[in-house]
C-alpha cells in the first residue's frame, strides 16, 4: 500500500458513482438499506462525525487504525458485494470485539515445539483480540487484528469464510481490503455491456498500451499494466497476460479461453492446451473429459482429438507461415539431430520476423508445443523471446542468453541429473557420415530411425533378450539416440547403460568405419557393485580396421595398437585419483585429440531419434561360460504361500 495520503472521499465517491447491480443480483439485496434516509442508492452511507468515531473508540478501549478511521469519516459503513462473502460493513456504532465465540483459537494454535512461523502465531491469537466489522455476511467474518500491525499503525484485516474450511484471507490493512473489493466489484460486472465508466476506459487503455509494449519487447512494463487490468476483469487482459506468463515459465497451459476455437489462433493455442493432457497433467484425468472441455470452449471434437493424438505421439509440428515458418523448419532440422544451441540461434535471429496471427496474440506460443523445439524454450530463453521486438515493432534487442551445451565430453563425468553422476554410458562416433546412415552401419537387421522421442526422463531401454523372439540370451542390443555433434561426427549414444562391460564385449568401431574413422567409448562405473572395479573402454577404427584400443578395469589396463600419447591410459588413469577424476581426464583428452563432443541438452532434456543396435557382446566361444539371470516377481498362490 502506498504511503501517500489516501482520499477516501474520492475513492468511495467514484465507487458510488460507478455502482450498478450485477445482472444476477437480487434488486432488494442490492438496494440501499434505508432509502428513506435520503442517501443515494448504492453501497455507501453518510460519514460518521468525529464524535461518533471517538465514542466508538472509547467503547472499544482502542484507537482505530488510520485507514479504517478515515473510512468511517467518509462513509459510516459500506455494502461490499453479495458475492464477496462479506455483504455489509457496519458503521462506528456497529463494530465490536469478536472474542472468538466459535473456539477458533484452539484450531489454529501452532505446536510450539515445531518452532512455529510468526504468521502462524499471529493468526492463532487473532480470533480473541480481533475487531468484527461485518453486519451481514454469508457465514463469514471481517476481522481487524490490532496484534498484527505495521509501522504505520495499520491493522491487518482477515476475512474468514466459515463455509469454506480454508485459512482466512489476509489483507495488510483495511484500505488494501477495500481496494481489493473495488477491483472485485468491477470484475463481477465486466461482462455487462452497459458497465462503462472512467475506470473501465482507463483500464482498457492500459491493455492497449501493454499490447504494444509487449510487441516492442518491453514485457516488464506490460506485465503490471495487464495484471492490474486483469484484477478489474477487463477483456483481453487475461489472454495477453497469460501469454507472457507462459513464456516466463514454459510448460503446461496458462489458460487461453476460447482462442482454442478461433481459426486465427487455434494452430498456436490448441496444441499447447493438449500438451498438459498428453503429458498426464490434465486436471480432467481422461481424454474424453478433456475433449468435452475443449468442445465447451468451442473447439470441434474431431480437430481437438486429432491434435491431442499428434501431440501425444510426438508427430505434431508447429508450422507457421512466412519467413518465421521457414526459420522454424530450419531450427527443427538442426534440433532433431541434437544441435539445440544452433537451433535456438536460428529461432532467435528470426524472432523479429514473427507476425501475430491476430490482435490477441503477442508471442509465438505454438513454438512451445512443438515436440522437438518446445524443450529448447527454457525460462531464460522465454524471457529473451519476450524482450525481443517482433511483429513489425522496433526496440532494443536483448543480450543473448548463454548457450546450454558445454564443449567436449567432460560433462559426462559430472553431475548428470538431480546432482547424481551418470550411471554408465556408451557411445559410437562416426566421422563423415550422416546420422541417418548409422542404422545401416551398426543397427540390428531392419533397424530404422524412430520419430524423435522424449529423452528427458530416461534413455530408451532395448527389450531384454528373453523378451524378443530370435535374440540369443548372450546378446546385448541397445536402443541408442542418434545425432550429430558440433564438429560434424554422427553419434549413437546409450545411457545410462544397463549392461556391464565384460570379457564378451565386441566393439562396434570396426563395423562403423568403412568410410572413415569411428570411435567407441564405454564407461562402466559399477557404482552399485563395489566388489567389481569400474571399467572404461576406448577403441578407434578406420576403413573397417581397428587402429588401437584400451580397457581400464581398476588398476588393470589392456591395450592394443599404437595408442597416441595424448590418449595413453597410463597417463590418464592414475591410481591415486578418484574414478570420476580419471574419467574426466580421459574425456577431456578424447575431445582435445579427436574432436569428440556430445550435446548435453539434447541428451538430457530434448528429443532425438533412436534405433536398436546389433549386439555389443559376441557369442561365447568354446570353453567360455555365459549366464543370463532374470528375476521374476514372486506371486503367492491363493490361500497360501510358496516356500
Structural notes for this entry:
The protein is α+β, with helices and mostly antiparallel strands and 643 residues long. It has helices at 8-18, 27-30, 50-60, 66-74, 104-108, 118-129, 174-189, 198-215, 219-231, 237-248, 266-278, 287-296, 301-313, 322-335, 340-350, 379-386, 438-442, 509-512, 569-572, 579-594, 600-605, and strands spanning 78-79, 86-89, 96-97, 131-132, 134-137, 140-149, 155-161, 169-171, 415-417, 420-421, 425-430, 453-454, 479-484, 490-494, 517-524, 535-542, 545-553, 556-561, 607-612. A hairpin with a 6-residue loop joins strand 1 and strand 2.
Structural features:
643 residues, nine-stranded antiparallel β-sheet, five-stranded antiparallel β-sheet, 33% helix
Quick description:
This protein is α+β, with helices and mostly antiparallel strands. It is built from 21 helices and 19 strands.
User: Treating each run of at least 4 consecutive H or I residues as one helix, how many helices?
Assistant: 21
Low-confidence stretches: 29-40, 638-643
How many strand units?
Answer: 19
Mean pLDDT: 88
Major sheet: arrangement of strands: 12-19-13-14-11-15-16-17-18
Major sheet characteristics = 9 strands, antiparallel
Question: Helix fraction?
Answer: 25-40%
Strand proportion, as a percent range, falls in 5-15%
As a whole number of angstroms, the C-alpha radius of gyration is 34 Å
- Helix/strand class: alpha+beta
How would the global form be characterised?
elongated
Task: Please report the distance between the alpha carbons of the first and last residues.
Answer: 72 Å
Amino acid at each position: 500500500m502506498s504511503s501517500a495520503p489516501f482520499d477516501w472521499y474520492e475513492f468511495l465517491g467514484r465507487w458510488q458513482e460507478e455502482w450498478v447491480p450485477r445482472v444476477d443480483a437480487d434488486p432488494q439485496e442490492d438496494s440501499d438499506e434505508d432509502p428513506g434516509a435520503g442517501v443515494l442508492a448504492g453501497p455507501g452511507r453518510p460519514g460518521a462525525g468525529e464524535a461518533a468515531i471517538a465514542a466508538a473508540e472509547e467503547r472499544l478501549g482502542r484507537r482505530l487504525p488510520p485507514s479504517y478511521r478515515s473510512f468511517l469519516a467518509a462513509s459510516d459503513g459500506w455494502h461490499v458485494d453479495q458475492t464477496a462473502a462479506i455483504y455489509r460493513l457496519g458503521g462506528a456504532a456497529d463494530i465490536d470485539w469478536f472474542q472468538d465465540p466459535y473456539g477458533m483459537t484452539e484450531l489454529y494454535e501452532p505446536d510450539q515445539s515445531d518452532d512455529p512461523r510468526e504468521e502462524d502465531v499471529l493468526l492463532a491469537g487473532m480470533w480473541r483480540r480481533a475487531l468484527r466489522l461485518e453486519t451481514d455476511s454469508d457465514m463469514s467474518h471481517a476481522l481487524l487484528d490490532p496484534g498484527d500491525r505495521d509501522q504505520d499503525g495499520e491493522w491487518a484485516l482477515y476475512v474468514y469464510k466459515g463455509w469454506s474450511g480454508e485459512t482466512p484471507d489476509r489483507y495488510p490493512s483495511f484500505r488494501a481490503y477495500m481496494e481489493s473489493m473495488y477491483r472485485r466489484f468491477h470484475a463481477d460486472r465486466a461482462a455487462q455491456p452497459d458497465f462503462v465508466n472512467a475506470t473501465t476506459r482507463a483500464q482498457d487503455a492500459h491493455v492497449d498500451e501493454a499490447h504494444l509494449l509487449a510487441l516492442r519487447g518491453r514485457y516488464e512494463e506490460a506485465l503490471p499494466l495487464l495484471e492490474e487490468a486483469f484484477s478489474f476483469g477487463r477483456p483481453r487482459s487475461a489472454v495477453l497476460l497469460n501469454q507472457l506468463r507462459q513464456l516466463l515459465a514454459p510448460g503446461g497451459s496458462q489458460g487461453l479461453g476460447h482462442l482454442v476455437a478461433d481459426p486465427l489462433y487455434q494452430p498456436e493455442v490448441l496444441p499447447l492446451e493438449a500438451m498438459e493432457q498428453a503429458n498426464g497433467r490434465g486436471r480432467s484425468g481422461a481424454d474424453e473429459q478433456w475433449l468435452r472441455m475443449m468442445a465447451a470452449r468451442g473447439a470441434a471434437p474431431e480437430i481437438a482429438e486429432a491434435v491431442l493424438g499428434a501431440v501425444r505421439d510426438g508427430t505434431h509440428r508447429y508450422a507457421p507461415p512466412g519467413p518465421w515458418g521457414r526459420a522454424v523448419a530450419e531450427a527443427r532440422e538442426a534440433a532433431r539431430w541434437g544441435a539445440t544451441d544452433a537451433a535456438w540461434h536460428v529461432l532467435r535471429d528470426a524472432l523479429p520476423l514473427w507476425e501475430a496471427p491476430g490482435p490477441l496474440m503477442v508471442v509465438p506460443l505454438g513454438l512451445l508445443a512443438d515436440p522437438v523445439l518446445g524443450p529448447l524454450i527454457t525460462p531464460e530463453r522465454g524471457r529473451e523471446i519476450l524482450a525481443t521486438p517482433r511483429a513489425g515493432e522496433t526496440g532494443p534487442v536483448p543480450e543473448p542468453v548463454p548457450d546450454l551445451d558445454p564443449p567436449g565430453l567432460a560433462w559426462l563425468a559430472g553431475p548428470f541429473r538431480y546432482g547424481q553422476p551418470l550411471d554408465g554410458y556408451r557411445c559410437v562416433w562416426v566421422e563423415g557420415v550422416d546420422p541417418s546412415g548409422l542404422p545401416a552401419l551398426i543397427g540390428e537387421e531392419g533397424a530404422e530411425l524412430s520419430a524423435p522421442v522424449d529423452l528427458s526422463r530416461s534413455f530408451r531401454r532395448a527389450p531384454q533378450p528373453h523378451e524378443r523372439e530370435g535374440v540369443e540370451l548372450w546378446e546385448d542390443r541397445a536402443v541408442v539416440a542418434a545425432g550429430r555433434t558440433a564438429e560434424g561426427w554422427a553419434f549413437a549414444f546409450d545411457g545410462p547403460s544397463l549392461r556391464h562391460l565384460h570379457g564378451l564385449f565386441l566393439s562396434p568401431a570396426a563395423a562403423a568405419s568403412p568410410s572413415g574413422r569411428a570411435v567407441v567409448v564405454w564407461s562402466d562405473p559399477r557404482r552399485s557393485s563395489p566388489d567389481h572395479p569400474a571399467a572404461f573402454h576406448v577403441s578407434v577404427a578406420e576403413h573397417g580396421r581397428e587402429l588401437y584400443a584400451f580397457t581400464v578395469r581398476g588398476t588393470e589396463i589392456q591395450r592394443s595398437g599404437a595408442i597416441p600419447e595424448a590418449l595413453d591410459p597410463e597417463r590418464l588413469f592414475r591410481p591415486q585419483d578418484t574414478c570420476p577424476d580419471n574419467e574426466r581426464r580421459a574425456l577431456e583428452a578424447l575431445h582435445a585429440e579427436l574432436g569428440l563432443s556430445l550435446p548435453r541438452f539434447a541428451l538430457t532434456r530434448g528429443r532425438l531419434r533412436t534405433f536398436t543396435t546389433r549386439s555389443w557382446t559376441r557369442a561365447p566361444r568354446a570353453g567360455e561360460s555365459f549366464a543370463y539371470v532374470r528375476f521374476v516377481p514372486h506371486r503367492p498362490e491363493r490361500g497360501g504361500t510358496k516356500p
